[in-house]
From TrEMBL:
InterPro entries, per database record: Rossmann-like_a/b/a_fold, Universal_stress_UspA, UspA
Signal peptide: none
Record's protein name: UspA domain-containing protein
Highest taxon listed in the record's lineage: Eukaryota
A UniProt-annotated Pfam family: Usp
Domain UspA intervals: 1-146
Gene3D superfamilies found in the cross-reference section: HUPs
Protein species of origin: Anisodus acutangulus
Length: 151
């Protein structure tokens, strides 16, 4: 979750299509290595501990991990946690999103759901595609949710 429109679309898709009562959702955040919260050194290799939604919503907790919580994302997660009795957790990693998303497979995930920015071929070659890398390298199934083309 990088709070981009496509990552929010991927979260909405997962909530609408995958999540069933009693499931657990782990929202994975990958913070750039340039962000250096105090506790980064404690969790740099393994990522943060799993953070329950109620704790993550507290601004001090999010800031502690170098994140600014997004109201729109929290507004999507609150109802699903209450109505479907879904456990929502967050985990924060620092570094390259491609590698860290693949590393998250050690959490024994049923699937990773990622958004795709819809880069053209040239930009994808020059910049790299997080979703393409994850599809090729993750040890669990990956669903890529593409944004609708502009009209």
């Amino acid at each position: 979750m990088d709070y981009s429109p496509t990552s929010k679309l991927a979260l909405k898709w997962a909530i609408d299509n995958l999540i069933e009562e009693g499931d657990t959702i782990i929202i994975i955040h990958v913070v750039s290595s340039k962000v250096d919260p105090t506790n980064k050194q404690l969790f740099e290799d393994t990522g943060s501990p799993l953070i329950p939604l109620d704790e993550f919503k507290e601004i001090n907790v999010s800031k502690y991990y170098g994140l600014d919580p997004d109201k729109e994302v929290l507004d999507m997660l609150d109802p699903v946690s209450k109505l479907k009795k879904v456990t929502v957790m967050s985990k924060v990693y620092w570094g390259d999103a491609r590698e860290k998303l693949c590393d998250a497979a050690h959490l024994k995930l049923d699937t990773l759901v990622v958004g795709s920015r819809g880069l053209g071929v040239l930009k994808r070659v020059l910049l790299g595609s997080v979703s393409n890398y994850v599809v090729q390298n993750a040890t669990c199934p990956v669903t890529v949710v593409k944004a609708s083309p502009p009209k």
